[in-house]
Amino acid sequence: MPNDDVLTVSEVAAYLKVNERTVYRLASAKRLPGFKVGTSWRFRRTELEAWIRAQSGEGNR
């Protein structure tokens, strides 16, 4: 199940090369696909990759 890894905020920040605060802000605004486990955000790698494709316009081709 390597394509369906669940990532933490710090892992997503490193993956996207942004600050953790940016990840929290985007997730809270529902602009980044994620879900909460208790009070902690988690993200599926496959959903992030789809989000990246959509942001770069690849999803519209």
UniProtKB/TrEMBL annotation:
GO MF annotation terms: DNA binding
Q: Which residues form the Helix-turn-helix domain?
A: 6-56
Q: Which Pfam families does this entry report, sorted A to Z?
A: HTH_17
Q: Which InterPro entries match?
A: DNA-bd_dom_put_sf, HTH_17, SinI_DNA-bd, WH-like_DNA-bd_sf
Q: Which NCBIfam families match?
A: antiphage_MADS1, excise
Protein name, please? Transcriptional regulator
